Amino acid sequence: MANVLIRPDWYIPERLVTPEHVYRNRRTFLRQMGLTGAGLFTAAPALLSARAAEAASKAIASRFPAKRNPDFNPKLRISNEDPATSYNNFYEFSTSKDRVKRLVGNFKTQPWPLEIYGLCEKPLKVDLADLLEEFPQEERVYRFRCVEAWSMVVPWTGFVLADLLKKVQPKSEAKFVRFETAGRPEEMPGYNRLLAQGYPLPYNEGLRLDEAMHPLTLVCTGMYGKPLPKQNGAPVRIIVPWKYGYKSIKSIVKIELVAKQPSTLWEALQPTEYPFESNVEPNVPHPRWSQATEREVDTGDRIPTLPYNGYAEQVAKLYKKG
Ligand code: MTE
């Protein structure tokens, strides 16, 4: 009998794991492994996880740092990196802000299939690393204001959401965009407790289409010149700088174009405290506290809150009545 070597399912022949530098880019590398397009979604999980994750995270890391765009808040003092990346709201891990960072270790952020679908002509399923081949990133310094009245100033890296939405060609019936975070109880230690408390998970948020298409709204993959830390929403989140932070949904896997205003997690839980629109408005107090001032996370200083978080000139026109 011939000497037959039995290989496990996940075995990758040596010729297919040619060192990465031999390939011009990650797409080529994954194609060699049959891991692009439909293959990416159907291949054996073990095969995907090791080699593809490594290739994807290298490909993403190679996009950093991106060039800063000087048009966005060039004079603001940037918050210190450590508090900005250790004081987090990411309820699927923990409701204690200082514990999230310690609990994200098992969260797998590579590879990261992203789906853009719904009322559009060209729905898309793509891995984030491939998407970044197409959409060049830039760095923008934005103010970031939580509804809980703390704030920071962050250099985010990303690209304009409108560019991605234009690619899928929204149909005329599309009036809103719904976003959804990955829902993975096995990797997110706080998930099942939230579910038991009645949170409508996976975390979901929404924007009007004109808000989503606004040139300030970012698909964000990094901060402080590096890929996003897991606790800040790796590998991809949305940043909407004139709205309270809960609209800036983390670790998104789905973007859906819809006709009607979607239900959103916080509004479903407490509509009077966390309404769908949620623009930063210092003159409209939260039912339980004032929104007139905010506490800087790194200095602890209290500073006045600005209408639309300082972006009134760019966005107030979206909300003019009549
Ligand atoms: N996204 C998900 N999936 N889960 C969350 O709990 N919290 C939101 C938002 N996005 C949240 C989320 C809230 S309330 C805020 S203020 C910001 O993320 C906090 O972002 P940061 O931790 O990067 O400062």
Number of domains: 2
Q: If you compute it from the alpha carbons, what radius of gyration comes out, rounded to the nearest whole angstrom?
A: 21 Å
Largest β sheet strand count, sense and barrel closure:
7 strands, mixed
User: Which distinct ligands sit in these coordinates?
Assistant: ligand MTE
Give me the number of helical elements.
11
Helix percent band? 10-25%
Low-confidence stretches at least 5 residues in length (pLDDT < 50)?
1-24
Order of helices and strands: HHHHHEEHEEHEHEHEEEEHEEH
CATH architecture of the largest domain: Alpha-Beta Complex
Overall SS class: alpha+beta
Strand proportion, as a percent range, falls in 15-25%
CATH class of the largest domain: Alpha Beta
| CATH fold label of the largest domain | Sulfite Oxidase, Chain A, domain 2
Q: Care to count the β-strands? A: 12
Instruction: Give the termini separation.
Output: 84 Å
Mean pLDDT: 90
Describe this structure in words.
The protein is α+β, with helices and mostly antiparallel strands. It has two domains: 36 residues; 253 residues, Alpha-Beta Complex (Sulfite Oxidase, Chain A, domain 2), CATH 3.90.420.10. Helices cover 22% and strands 20% of the residues. It is built from eleven helices and twelve strands. The strands form two sheets. Strands 3, 4, 7, 8, 9, 11 and 12 form a seven-stranded mixed sheet that branches. Strands 2-1-10-5-6 form a five-stranded mixed sheet. Helix 3 runs parallel beside helix 6. The longest helix is centred in the first third of the chain and has 17 residues. The N terminus is likely disordered. The protein binds ligand MTE. The site of ligand MTE has 16 residues, from loops.
